[in-house]
Write a structure and sequence with these properties.
The protein has five helices and two strands. The chain has 100 residues and is mostly helical. Helix 2 (26-43) crosses helix 5 (83-94).
């Protein structure tokens, strides 16, 4: 049950971002920070304020999607997703893609 709530929270946040403007506003950053805190409540087993890969993977039913997202969101490749990495990953979802 808690995993489906987290997944729904992530989907809702992404949907909200895709419907928004092209600017990642302070309100959007606040929403992303709040979403990360909710994820931590359920998945940060050692309460260190960041997600290890093992903690992150518990969120995802489809482990391939989880692994792909891990590689994208752990931007500094230190083995953890911090609040800043999460907020930046959500911001990058919002940015329009450049076309050639």
């Amino acid at each position: 049950m808690k995993h489906s709530k987290l997944f729904l929270l992530i989907i809702l946040l992404i949907s909200f971002l895709l419907m928004g403007t092209s600017t990642f506003s302070q309100d959007m950053k606040k929403a992303a920070r709040n979403a990360f805190k909710e994820i931590l409540k359920n998945s940060d087993k050692n309460k260190d304020g960041k997600l290890s890969k093992a903690e992150f993977m518990t969120i995802w039913k489809d482990k391939n999607t989880g692994d792909k997202n891990w590689k994208t969101w752990d931007t500094n490749k230190d083995g953890y997703i911090t609040e800043e990495e999460y907020v930046n990953a959500v911001a990058n979802i919002q940015k329009p893609r450049k076309t050639k």
